[in-house]
Amino acid sequence: MHPLWLLVGSLTLALIAGVPIGFALLLSSLLVIWVEQLPTAVMVQQMFNGINAFTLLALPFFFLAGNVMTGGGISERLVKLAMALVGHLRGGLAQVNVVVGMFLAGVSGSSTADAAAITTVFAPAMKQRGYDERFAVCLSACSSTMGAVIPPSILMVVYGATAGVSIGALLIGGVLPGVLIGLALMAQSHVFALRHGFPREHPRFLGLRAVWQGLVASAWPMGVPLIIVVGMVGGVFTPTESAAVAAVYALFVTLVVYRSLRWTQLPALLGETAVQFSQVLFCVGGAALWGWILAFYQVPDMVSEFILGFTRDWVSIMLLIVLLNVLLGTFMDAIPAILIFVPIVHPLAVEVGIHPVHLGVVVVMTQAFGLLTPPLGMCAMTACAVAGVPLTRIQGLLHVMMLPILLICFLCALIPWIVLWLPRLLVPNWV
Amino acid sequence: MRAERAFAVLERGLLPLLAGLLALITAGVFVQVVLRYGFAMSFLWGEESALFAFIWCVYLGAAICTWRRSHFAFDLFAGRLSGRAAGLQRLVVDLCVLLVAAVMLVQGAAFAELSVQRLSPALGITLLLPTLAIPLSGLLMVLATLAALGEDLRLILTGRAG
Predict the structure, then answer these.
(1) pLDDT tens per residue, range A340-399
(2) Model confidence at A88: pLDDT above 60
(3) Closest approach of chain B CAs to the CA of A413, in angstroms?
(4) Which chain A residues are within 8 Å of B71, Cβ to Cβ?
(5) Residues A150, A102: contact at Cβ < 8 Å?
């Protein structure tokens, strides 16, 4: 029996039994190590080397900036600007929901945190304005998926570290696709607004003065995406450094400027943030060993050879990867899916000429889409939990409302230009 | 129950430590940037100490997640099993975790021992410092899992949580 069967079989069994993902990855690798009489010391070496990487340090900072900002009631400030921009459209509050989702995505790196923040603000507000509660919850969940695509993004960092792709280029590559998702959701909201007669928030555009006031109100939080993108584009910071500066900036804004976070709350916030990212990085450590075993048995080569026997057409391979990712995203959380899946498909995609940054952004987008699909859609579940609506009540509508996001995923998969244009323009050295 | 209280006390000690480590990580990288642009100084040990603090954060945090049972997992059986069946499922999970944690402890200790002589490139301190995080985390996980195994067995035998 090829050790690969033992590796995949034991991992699947352990995961089904409910063994935590990090431990399941380590356990299945250990079984292969023991059966094949490889040195057990490899496990600890890989667990150490896997996270001993300066690029991964961006993760704690993105978690910290996001926690500090969303905890400090930032979304309310962003609402003012969004209201001035799109509140006059039909279904104004729905449009504001999407635009705030886009802004918030630029401040926090986690879609689930965004889902909680957006739903908290919009589910009650939209219900009050006569929107169907199911629509409000579904839209909030959909808006939050942009959090994983628009920088800062935790998934992009995990992807870049797993596949060895420039994290800076991935982050910048996510900007345009993220905005496209937002526009698609706005178009969809418009259609819903026409059909259901959703109200406008103001009879007409409030004018540039209102937009200016909104900009002033949200200037401080919007500094976060500015620091990250401009810092990287200007060649001033590495992605990790820009994340650190953004985290310190976020602390400064909430502690000193807004005083929405008290100094006494800081230790608890820091401690819980550390526990939160250790959850992710323990899996990264386990995946480092799992990836080492895969590479040891040249599994990626085997998979590549097998699939390339059928086709060498990049479009077919890309579509295959997207479909597989959607399927995987349905049953798995995004981070483990990336950790397990990417070492296998990355060499295959590069072999047929798909650009690593293009692949990375598309995989992250499809995994962000997977955050909506039951049974394991973290964003949908978070939105439901916050709004106090059972998942079964919104499922039907959600399946319809998430289609525009899938459409954008396919669009970005088939037109590399959408992903690659901005990084090639702004950070040509990284692409 | 006594074990649960012991871990709660341990956590109250560990959380401020984690907070301190995260503050150190942030300060390390931030100060490096400030010194580079403000004073044209290179400050490589800021990066290295941040990385060491990060490794400690990750493995201590992972130990906390073990007794909190908050590691990422597929909750295929969550809420669907009750009494003895739930106990059996948890027993299987905890035995798997125990095995991995024990290897972390034993092999991690050997790895840390080998690292005593190796020095870090920037700070020039022994690599024992960062590598010690893994066996210590393994030890905490072993203890937490042993305590959990007792609970699992009680659940299997009596069908009720203790």
Answers:
(1) 889 989 999 999 999 999 999 999 999 999 999 876 788 998 999 899 898 889 989 999
(2) yes
(3) 29
(4) 20-23, 279, 282
(5) yes
Distance, CA of B133 to CA of B156 (rounded, Å): 34
Query: Tokens representing A125?
Result: 């507000």
Contact B26, A67 (CB under 8 A): no
Q: Are A54 and B137 in contact (CB under 8 A)?
A: no
Residue A262 per-residue DSSP state: -
Task: Please give the single-letter amino acid code of residue A341.
Answer: F
Dihedral pair phi/psi, residue B116, rounded to 5°:
-55, -40
- Report CB contact under 8 Å: A18, B70: no
Its ipTM equals: 0.94
* HSE value, Cβ hemisphere, 13 Å, CA-based, for A78: 28
Tell me how far apart the alpha carbons of residues A363 and B21 are, in angstroms, rounded to a whole number.
33
Contacts of A191 (CB under 8 A, 6+ apart): none
Residues 79-108 (B) with a CB less than 8 A from some CB of A: 89, 92-93, 96-97, 99-100, 103-104, 107-108
In sign, the C-alpha dihedral spanning A431, A46, B104, B112 is negative
Counted residue by residue, chain B has a size of 162
Q: Which of B30, B80, B100 to mutate to test the interface with A (most CBs of A within 10 A)?
A: B100
Please state the pTM of the whole predicted model: 0.89
* Rounded (5°) CA angle A335-A408-A140: 65
Residue type at position B136: L
Q: Which of B26, B75, B92 sits opposite A64 (nearest CB)?
A: B26
